[in-house]
Specification:
By secondary structure, the chain is an alpha+beta fold. The protein has a single domain (about 5-255), classed as B-lactam Antibiotic, Isopenicillin N Synthase, Chain (Jelly Rolls), CATH 2.60.120. It has 8 helices and 14 strands. It has helices at about 10, 15-35, 45-60, 65-70, 115-140, 145-150, 220-225, 280-295; strands spanning about 5, 35-40, 80-85, 90-95, 155-165, 175-180, 185-190, 195-200, 205, 215-220, 235-240, 245-250, 260, 280. An 8-stranded mixed β-sheet has the order 1-2-10-7-12-5-4-3. A 4-stranded antiparallel β-sheet has the order 6-11-8-9, with no helix packed on it. A hairpin with a 2-residue loop joins strand 8 (about 195-200) and strand 9. It is globular. The chain starts with a strand and ends in a 24-residue tail after the last helix. It binds 2-oxoglutaric acid and fe (ii) ion.
Length: about 325
């Protein structure tokens, strides 16, 4: 089933109240029913998107030893270049963090790559705050509740990905393992290579590239806070055929010290048992990151939100 497309023009332009409410409603409903949607008229300039894509591509085209010089300098947030070495292929990434932190590492051989990727980072961060406010309104939470709860922007991350092409016989194999994003909201900018799929009611459905749109998906943190009203849909990426696939994934994150548990409004206050135990966000994140960076991690060591689920039979205890 095609994911919904939500037009954000009325939100960006602060136009009439009726259109604004309509957009908030459509956005919120898509988070409940799909956990995956597209947005149009999202306010990100086309020119900036194209420039960012072009420079990320130029970076990945540089020789290996030059890319390796962009290895992370910070152990807190490993901004910089990395490459996977697992059965899912040698996907490469360039991780960009909040520019003010000063952790970002870029090659001097690609002029303007820093300014450009840090510029799109800031735009995506604003979009994240806007979407968070829309969801806050849709869920009828106290004004600014989510933005006050999620008040640390230093953990936001932009991942620029390159999925290298594979031999013909391997095409269509999975190049990025199925997962839920752990964060609040993710914004995805794909190039024109297909491969992204999301899971709905047990089926895998392609999210085909569509120029002018940004894909948004809900993360596990929002699923837990809403007691599974909003869903963090699983997604995965198939290996590209005969060419590289590039994408940007911007993670509107939350601080590791935040205690995440279903809000009473979506549990006790409406007579529903909480579906998750409380946890510190970092507990969920750490096991995921370990897996991503160390292919030897065993599957059973990887935590996802289900790890904190309260079994149904315990609901009424
Ligand atoms: O490359 C994509 O389209 C998806 C990337 C993704 O799911 C992620 O980075 O979490
Ligand atoms: Fe993801």
């Amino acid at each position: 089933m095609e994911i919904p497309v939500v037009d954000l023009a009325s939100i960006i332009k602060h136009s009439n109240e009726e259109d604004r409410k309509k957009a908030v409603n459509e956005f919120g409903k898509a988070c409940l029913e799909f956990g995956f949607l597209r947005i149009i008229n999202h306010g990100l300039p086309d020119e900036l998107i194209n420039r960012s894509r072009e420079l990320a591509k130029q970076f990945f085209d540089r020789p290996n030893d030059e890319k390796l010089e962009c290895k992370p300098v910070s152990t807190i947030l490993p901004a910089g270049y990395g490459k996977m070495h697992g059965s899912f292929g040698c996907n490469e990434w360039l991780m960009v963090c909040e520019p003010i932190l000063g952790f970002n590492v870029f090659p001097s051989s690609v002029p303007h790559v820093r300014e450009t990727l840090e510029e799109i980072f800031v735009h995506l961060q604003k979009l994240g705050a806007m979407v968070e406010n829309m969801v806050n309104e849709y869920l009828d939470l106290p004004s600014n509740f989510l933005s006050q709860f999620n008040d640390d922007r230093s953990k936001d991350v932009l991942m620029c990905w390159r999925y290298p092409p594979v031999a013909a016989e391997d095409a269509n194999k999975i190049g990025r393992e199925e997962h839920q994003d752990t964060n609040c909201f993710t914004f995805l900018l794909q190039d024109d290579a297909d491969g992204l799929e999301y899971e709905k009611d047990g089926s895998w459905i392609p999210v085909l590239p569509m120029e002018g749109t940004l894909v948004v998906n809900v993360g596990s943190t929002i699923q837990a806070l809403t007691n599974k009203k909003m869903i963090a849909a699983r997604h995965r990426v198939r290996k590209p055929k005969g060419r590289n696939r590039h994408s940007f994934a911007f993670f509107y994150n939350i601080g590791g010290e935040k205690w995440i548990e279903p809000l009473p409004k979506f549990a006790e206050e409406i007579g529903e048992a909480p579906k998750y135990k409380g946890f510190f966000y970092k507990e969920l994140l750490q096991a995921r990151l370990k897996k991503e960076r160390n292919p030897l991690t065993l599957r059973e060591e990887v935590l996802d939100l289900d790890h904190f689920a309260i079994p149904v039979e315990d609901y009424n205890d």
